[in-house]
Backbone:
């Protein structure tokens, strides 16, 4: 099917041609291509929905040795989501002076690489595409070169390439064992009955690398650096958080399905819950608003992998729907925060106040995104979280989900202080500057935001509400999973959210005064050697656990 090849090669070819176009034509050309990509992605989704999984053998080689493109229904949904989100991000940046040929080239190449990762039917081709994408992402992090950005970019590329070397070792072991790296052929070969112990080492090597790409605890320190780097434009932060980090999750989904190792799902369910709680704690102690959103992404990623690993139809559909929802509300938040930071010239959450009066449109979009991520009634997060918890029979899992929601409410209550004028007296140093800061804020006027930027963030924020109201239709249409949220269920979810909000507000008032005491934890950033040691320890724990489960 040529449409799949277009989604991979189209952006890359246009990126190569951009340098031959006049400067004034580069942006319109990129937008026109994205409109075409959205249309093609929708066509691919329609075809998959009608005819089932698409398999394209390039050059008519056998599946086990040739280049194969595969698109199932979830992949097709992700292709539509990716094309649409990148079109919105390009429109968001359309008026930026810094968006030149180099930026558009890198952005479009990354889009083609991400599409290739999604549809590739060969684990080695995925490795090559991810490695190239790592280089492109590093260049985007370094796009506006600053001293901190250089460190963030070098750290990102070094630790990700180290992890993917482990992935490559796992591929070698798997190829030696099975003679193929095709995802289609592997599913059939491994289903015939390879001894589980022979698969543990290759799976663990590959899954450990993918765990770092997806930012599972304790392999998380690279993500806030990359997503919150001062040299990365807001659209890049939104792309990395909303789409790029999901490639690690999706690849792990594939590995779990291909290997089907006893104990692997239990391991990643535990890792997901731990990751969620770690992301909450680390988000609460941040003063950099972009880093806070980065750690929030880590928490939501943990929730997604825990839900998918649980293995029920409801929880897995909820996990996939939450990936879509997360792309919407986290992109809205990152873009809105980017506008705020640009106008206030600071990322210190303690120094950003009175945003609602000065930037009402951006504030409204941000609040809609916050309601989405906290699972407020009628917002998209409430639908996916309802599906996630629908089959949870274990009381520990139900309590964990409630605590994760409570933690999410807590750190967004902290962010919400930027909308008012009052200075938080519990943060070190803020009380000494309160009087002068209040006087400064009182004299500030309403800030004018570019209409296109305001429209994009409002659209993304509104989508959090629209997709929540139409959650049942989306679940049925996108994933063929019926969802019947009765009035009783909606009432129960509403009461639970309101109680969580009330408890969160009370806890925040009590805990806010103690946040500054965790400053040492906030300032401690694991270096390259420490992250490598954590990666080795993570691999060792996974090996021991799986060997014990398959003894």
Residues:
């Amino acid at each position: 099917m040529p449409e799949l090849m277009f989604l991979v090669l189209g952006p890359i070819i246009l990126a190569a041609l951009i340098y031959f176009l006049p400067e004034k034509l580069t942006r319109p050309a990129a937008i026109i291509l994205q409109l075409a990509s959205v249309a093609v992605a929708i066509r691919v989704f329609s075809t998959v929905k009608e005819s089932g999984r698409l398999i394209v053998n390039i050059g008519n080689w056998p599946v086990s040795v040739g280049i194969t493109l595969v698109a199932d229904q979830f992949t097709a949904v992700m292709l539509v989501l990716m094309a649409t989100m990148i079109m919105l991000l390009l429109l968001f940046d359309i008026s930026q002076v810094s968006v030149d040929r180099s930026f558009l080239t890198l952005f479009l190449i990354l889009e083609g690489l991400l599409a290739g990762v999604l549809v590739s039917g060969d684990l080695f081709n995925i490795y090559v595409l991810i490695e190239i994408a790592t280089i492109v992402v590093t260049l985007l992090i370094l796009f506006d070169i600053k001293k901190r950005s250089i460190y963030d970019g070098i750290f990102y590329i070094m630790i990700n390439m180290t992890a993917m070397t482990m992935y490559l070792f796992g591929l070698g072991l798997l190829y030696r064992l099975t003679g193929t790296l095709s995802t289609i052929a592997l599913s059939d070969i491994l289903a015939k009955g390879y001894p589980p112990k022979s698969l543990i080492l290759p799976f663990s090597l590959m899954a450990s690398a993918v765990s770092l790409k997806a930012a599972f605890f304790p392999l998380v320190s690279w993500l806030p650096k990359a997503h919150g780097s001062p040299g990365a434009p807001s659209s890049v932060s939104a792309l990395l958080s909303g789409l790029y980090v999901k490639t690690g999750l999706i690849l792990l989904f594939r590995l779990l399905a291909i290997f089907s190792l006893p104990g692997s799902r239990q391991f990643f369910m535990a890792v997901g819950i731990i990751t969620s709680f770690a992301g909450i704690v680390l988000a609460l102690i941040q003063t950099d608003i972009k880093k806070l959103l980065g750690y929030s992404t880590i928490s939501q990623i943990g929730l997604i992998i825990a839900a998918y690993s649980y293995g029920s139809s409801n929880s897995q559909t909820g996990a996939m729907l939450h990936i879509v929802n997360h792309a919407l509300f986290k992109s809205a938040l990152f873009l809105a925060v980017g506008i705020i930071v640009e106008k206030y010239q600071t990322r210190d959450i303690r120094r950003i106040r009175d945003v609602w009066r000065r930037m009402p449109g951006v504030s409204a979009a941000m609040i809609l995104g916050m309601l989405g991520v906290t699972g407020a009634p009628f917002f998209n997060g409430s639908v996916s979280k309802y599906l996630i918890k629908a089959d949870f029979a274990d009381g520990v899992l139900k309590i964990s989900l409630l605590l994760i929601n409570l933690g999410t409410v807590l750190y967004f209550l902290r962010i919400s202080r930027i909308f008012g004028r009052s200075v938080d007296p519990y943060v070190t140093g803020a009380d000494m500057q309160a009087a002068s800061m209040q006087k400064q804020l009182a004299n500030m006027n309403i800030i004018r935001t570019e209409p296109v930027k305001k429209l994009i963030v409002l659209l993304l924020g509104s989508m959090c509400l629209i997709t929540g109201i139409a959650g049942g239709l989306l679940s049925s249409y996108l994933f063929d999973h019926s969802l019947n949220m009765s009035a009783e269920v909606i009432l129960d979810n509403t009461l639970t959210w309101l109680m969580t909000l009330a408890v969160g507000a009370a806890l925040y008032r009590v805990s806010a005064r103690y946040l500054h005491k965790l400053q040492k934890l906030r300032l401690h950033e694991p270096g390259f050697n420490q992250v490598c040691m954590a990666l080795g320890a993570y691999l060792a724990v996974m090996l021991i656990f799986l060997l014990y489960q398959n003894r």
Remarks:
- Residues 93 and 99 are 7 Å apart (CA to CA).
